[in-house]
Amino acid sequence: MHFNIHSEFELNGTSFPSKRELLLFSRTVSNPMFSFLSDFLKDSDTISVQTSGSTGTPKKIDIRKEHMINSARATGEFFDIKEETTALLCMNSEFIAGKMMLVRAMVLGWKLDIVGASHTPLKSIEKSYDFSAMVPLQVYNSLDELYKIKKLIIGGGVVSKELEIKLQSIKTEVYATYGMTETITHIAVRRLNGKRLKMKDNRDLTSIREVTMKQPLYKTLPNISISKDKRDCLVIDAPKVSNTRIVTNDMVELISETEFHWLGRYDTIINSGGIKLIPEQIEEKLAEIISERFFVAGIKDSVLGEKLVLVVEYNVSSSLSTSLKINSVEKSQGIRNCISKLNSLSKYETPKEIYFLEKFVETNTKKIQRKKTLDLIDLFGS
User: Fold this and answer.
1) Which phi and psi (to 5°) does residue 313 adopt?
2) Are 95 and 50 in contact (CB under 8 A)?
3) What distance in Å separates the CA atoms of residue 85 and residue 102, rounded to the nearest whole number?
4) Ranges in the chain annotated CATH 3.30.300.30
5) In 109-254, which ranges are E strands?
6) What pTM, to 2 d.p., does this model score?
7) Where in the chain do CATH 3.40.50.12780 domains reside?
């Protein structure tokens, strides 16, 4: 495929009369960037990328460069971001999210600056930007500096209720994205802030425990059609970014032809004594009382078939609350006391066991690998 770089494109303040000059410059920035651009700027029709591995084994897949270009244009149209947009790339260009920031910039004619992919990407930034993309951890660590970004998309992980509430006081337009490597990153987004939250007596919001937020709808990008299969899982028809119909394992509630609520993963459903439990919905409720990373899952049980358990990432240098001690028995009791006060949690959604691990197993993109983390319980669980 022949591709012409937009004449307005700049990388770290430098424009490029030819692809060769861009490649030479990218080599001075990072080897992963040089490697990707070398492949992308060839006349071949496809490029090989690696999936994240958050829901299975990471694998290499071939995607069409034409689809990457179409995805870039759809993002530009949806967010109304055109040529000469200033943008910041602070994600690793080894993965699809970082690669697509480069493609968007080259296709749409952005002025793109690049910083190292750190947990605090805005710390040393003095400029302001029209657009950027981050993972949730980067956003959480940059709340005091998000004013430097006008529009921000978040991908690579679930946005916690705690983070979403903190974003309400931020002027930056912040969006969560829905997508996967197979759809060339996102095919839908939902706005995370822009609404004024108050408590019942009209005092300003001060605590995550004092509000229940209704999750905004995901809205699809242009040229995307959605439906559900018999499992209530999302089916994506996106001919501009994929040659095949994509059947996901994401359970959704369809609101319209272009809008949906995400409910959770079909392959993580827990059947406990005949009651079907969706972990993601339970986790949203538990996020009101647990500040550390955690997840719920089902493990084999002789009576229930599967029993619901809570797994918390916890180490000596941090604390779940001021009332919890290092001793696992006391920690468990502290959480159980808080859970008992959660009116939103049914008796079926109450974890039967609580386990603590010092470190969760992650993918290269910092997503939790639940199955592999559960496998650690027999070795290190309390």
Assistant:
1) -85, 120
2) yes
3) 13
4) 269-380
5) 111-114, 129-134, 149-154, 173-180, 185-191, 218-220, 225-228, 233-237, 246-254
6) 0.82
7) 10-264
What are the structure tokens assigned to 303, written together? 């009576």
Predicted confidence (pLDDT) at residue 379 exceeds the cutoff of 60:
no
* pLDDT bucket at 55, cuts 50 / 70 / 90: low
Hey, what are 205's tokens?
């919001």
Could you tell me the CA-to-CA distances from 247 to 74, 134, 186, 234 in Å, in that order?
21, 26, 15, 6
Computed from CA positions of residues 295, 344, 299, 235, in that sequence, does the dihedral angle turn out positive or negative? negative
Q: Cβ atoms within 10 A of the Cβ of 19, count? A: 17
* pLDDT attached to residue 207: 43
Look at residue 97 and give its three-state secondary structure.
helix
135-155 confidence digits (pLDDT tens): 998 999 999 999 999 999 999
Q: Which of 7-11, 55-59, 92-96 has the lowest mean pLDDT?
A: 55-59
* Domain covering 269-380, topology: GMP Synthetase; Chain A, domain 3 (3.30.300)
Closest CA to 54 of 378, 381, 373: 373
Residue 265: strand pairing partners? 250
CATH class of 10-264: alpha beta
CB-side neighbour CA atoms (13 Å) of 256: 6
Contacts 24+ apart (CB under 8 A), 187-191: 187/220, 187/221, 187/224, 187/236, 187/238, 187/241, 188/218, 188/219, 188/220, 188/221, 188/224, 188/226, 188/260, 189/78, 189/153, 189/218, 189/219, 189/221, 190/215, 190/216, 190/217, 190/218, 190/219, 191/216
**CA 40/CA 23 separation, integer angstroms:** 11
pLDDT confidence bin for 314, thresholds 50/70/90: confident
Angle value at C-alpha 179, between 142 and 137, nearest 5 degrees: 20
Report the pLDDT value the prediction gives residue 66, as an integer from 0 to 100.
96
Cβ atoms of 45 and 56 closer than 8 Å: no
